[in-house]
Write a structure and sequence with these properties.
InterPro entries: Post-transcriptional_regulator. This protein has about 100 residues and is an all-alpha fold. The protein contains 5 helices and no strands. Helix content is about 60%, strand content about 0%.
Length: about 100
Amino acid sequence: MESLDLKNKQIQLTLMLKLQQLQREQLPGLNYKNLEDVMQKLVWKRNQPKTLHEAVNDILSLSADQIVRFLSKQAIIEGYHQELSEFSDLIGGRNV
């Protein structure tokens, strides 16, 4: 059987329900794209779910701590690959 993808309507619905729960309880700034990234690049990176119930279980068992750790690592990696001038608005410098 072929693995499921994020375009499956039931998976999208489950992601939206989990997103709303996380936004309401712990992570108000979390968006759908962040949650998709966590599922694809962390949870399902090596082990794609083969059935719908496996995918739903993976989504619903995801914790806010896992999301924060993953997004923090991603931000560090992305920041490493950027030029210092791209951070001028954060550090108060002029654009060069």
